[in-house]
Amino acid sequence: MIMKKTAPLVAAIAWVFLAAAAALAIPAEPQDKAALQALSDQYQGAVDAVLEWLSGGRAVLPDDPERKDMLLRLDPVLLEPDAGYLPVVGRFFRARMDAFLRDFENTRVDSGAVIWKLYNHTEVIKTPEVTLVTDLIQGWGEIYWDDAGIDRLIAGVDAMLITHEHGDHVDLRVLRKFKAAGKPVYAPNVPSWWAGEADTEYITLFRDASMEINGVKIHAFPAFQKTTINNVYLIETPGGVRIMHLGDDNESMKMGQEWFRIFKKKPLEIDVLIPNCWCPNLALLLNFVKPKLMISSHEHEVGHPVAGRREYGELYKVLPTVGVPFVVPAWGEKVVWPPVQ
């Protein structure tokens, strides 16, 4: 069960410090709790309506105008500067993670793949052979996994793939939990802001290389987010399903040298592409990588300042222009591949 955060103030301060060191801009916790509650109450009706709609378990498919309408109702509250501290956002997060855990633990995959989108850029990818999680963080403020909930998730996965070292993608607390569970963690590097932490020795460095887990092939392409190294992961099952997770691929400092240019002579055909929602080189990338479906991810990262967030309304303006079918799941929803009509 996901429960409201009750960690001591010291832990909260430590998390804010670590996140800030990783170039995040998590706002300081407001002191006026009454004002926070009053603001939260203004959005309760809209959030409850979305939660009720999501509880129906509607399939996540392209070209669903009702889905667009419901998700747009979340934009105002998630664009509040203090969204990460609003009780209504916390209730929404916990309800959606509870729903995810129930679905995750009861879903058996006999063919293809099931992909759940959680908060931020965390995806859980389950195939008949393996279950992977990307960029899992425990969170902060009201958007926070309690230990019991995150332990249930970790119990159900085989390995974690970390794309890069920014604090909205990597979490020392989660690394320690994987270490305690004896489950592997792969990353392109050890975050510089974890210097001196003995637990980081548990990370397997993995970049511009291939490996197999239970017969599933995983390749890490050497991408960048500006000057920060970032792994793009290609996951290929024995059944031929190909899923690519871009992390925060943003090659703006590497123009002309992007990793995907190796596919110039023969574009890479994949089934599912999971880009970050502001991927500035997406149109260029799609000349070299040809997905059948895109799953939008990383929108409404409320640890970013408002100007650095991407809302659902913007996604529904930009994604239709790139010429690939796309879906926009809410937190905790799943995408089934191949789609079940």
Protein architecture, described:
- The chain has 341 residues and is α/β, with parallel strands linked by helices.
- It has a single domain (9-337), classed as Metallo-beta-lactamase, Chain A (4-Layer Sandwich).
- Helices cover 28% and strands 21% of the residues.
- It contains 9 helices and 16 strands.
- The strands form 3 sheets. The protein has a 7-stranded mixed beta sheet, with helices on one face. Strands 9-10-11-12-13-14-15 form a 7-stranded mixed beta sheet, with no helix packed on it.
- A hairpin with a 4-residue loop joins strand 2 (123-126) and strand 3.
- The model is unreliable at 1-23 (pLDDT under 50).
Topology record:
Blueprint lengths: L8 H13 L11 H22 L10 H8 L2 H4 L8 H20 L6 E5 L5 E4 L4 E4 L4 E2 L2 E2 L2 H9 L3 E3 L10 H10 L3 E3 L16 E2 L3 E5 L2 E10 L2 E9 L5 E4 L22 E7 L7 H4 L3 E7 L16 H7 L7 E2 L6 E4 L4
Parallel strand pairs: 3-6, 6-7, 7-8, 12-13, 13-14, 14-15
Antiparallel strand pairs: 1-2, 1-16, 2-3, 4-5, 9-10, 10-11, 11-12
CATH architecture: 4-Layer Sandwich
Principal-axes shape call: globular
Summed up, the domain count is: 1
Report how far apart the termini are.
31 Å
Low-confidence stretches: 1-23
Percent of sequence in beta strands: 15-25%
Give the total of beta strands.
16
Query: How do the strands of the widest beta sheet line up side by side?
Result: 8-7-6-3-2-1-16
What's the short story on this structure?
This protein is an alpha/beta fold and 341 residues long.
Keywords summarizing the entry:
single chain, 341 residues, alpha/beta, Metallo-beta-lactamase, Chain A, 7-stranded mixed beta sheet, 9 helices, disordered N terminus
